[in-house]
């Protein structure tokens, strides 16, 4: 029906692609978009201002999970610490700046993950296996991209 509508000029090509992509993502799960823990760019559980500045400069990312050994204990969004970036690089980031990190099962459907991230008002979540062990991180942006295609903004550096 979507292809027919496109062929008859009722849908533009971009609209047709978005609709097709959205409908094809209905059966996909968090496991399809998760970043495995080994591939996650994280900061120490108690980062310094310098840790954040270095991570942003190296990656261009704006959000960083905080890792304490094999546990993720929260995340930092760069906008929450911008006022600290001129401070002593060895100064610790106050714990009050750390955001919570909700937990989403890897077998959750993408629409469930999107709803959970929105409820938690979070851009990142821990992705856990059915047995409760940590698998990696799921990002709101990655879930949204499954529905509408690539999202590019000023924070994307060479990606």
Description of the structure:
The two termini are about 35 Å apart. The protein is built from five helices and seven strands. It is globular and about 60 Å long. Helices cover about 30% and strands about 20% of the residues. It has helices spanning about 1-5, 15-25, 50-60, 110-120, 140-150, and strands at about 35, 45, 65-70, 70-75, 105, 125-130, 135-140. With about 160 residues, the protein is of the alpha/beta class. Strand 6 (about 125-130) and strand 7 form a beta hairpin. It has a single domain, classed as CBS-domain (Roll).
Give the SSE map.
Elements (H helix, E strand, L loop, with lengths): L1 H6 L5 H12 L10 E2 L6 E2 L4 H11 L3 E6 L2 E7 L25 E3 L4 H10 L4 E5 L5 E6 H9 L11
Parallel strand pairs: 2-3, 5-6
Antiparallel strand pairs: 1-7, 3-4, 6-7
In short:
With 159 residues, this protein is an alpha/beta fold. 30% of the residues lie in helices and 19% in strands. The chain has a 4-stranded mixed beta sheet with strand order 1-7-6-5.
List keywords for this structure.
5 helices, 4-stranded mixed sheet, 3-stranded mixed sheet, 159 residues, alpha/beta, CBS-domain
User: What is the succession of H and E elements?
Assistant: HHEEHEEEHEEH
How many strands appear in the DSSP assignment?
7
Helix content: 25-40%
Structural class: alpha/beta
CATH class category name: Alpha Beta
**On the 0-100 scale, what is the average pLDDT?**
85
Biggest beta-sheet profile:
4 strands, mixed
CATH architecture: Roll
User: What is the count of DSSP helices, taking H or I runs of 4+ residues?
Assistant: 5
At CATH level 3, the topology is CBS-domain
Shape: globular
Name the CATH superfamily classification.
CBS-domain
User: For the terminal residues, how far apart are their CA atoms?
Assistant: 34 Å
Low-pLDDT windows of residues: none
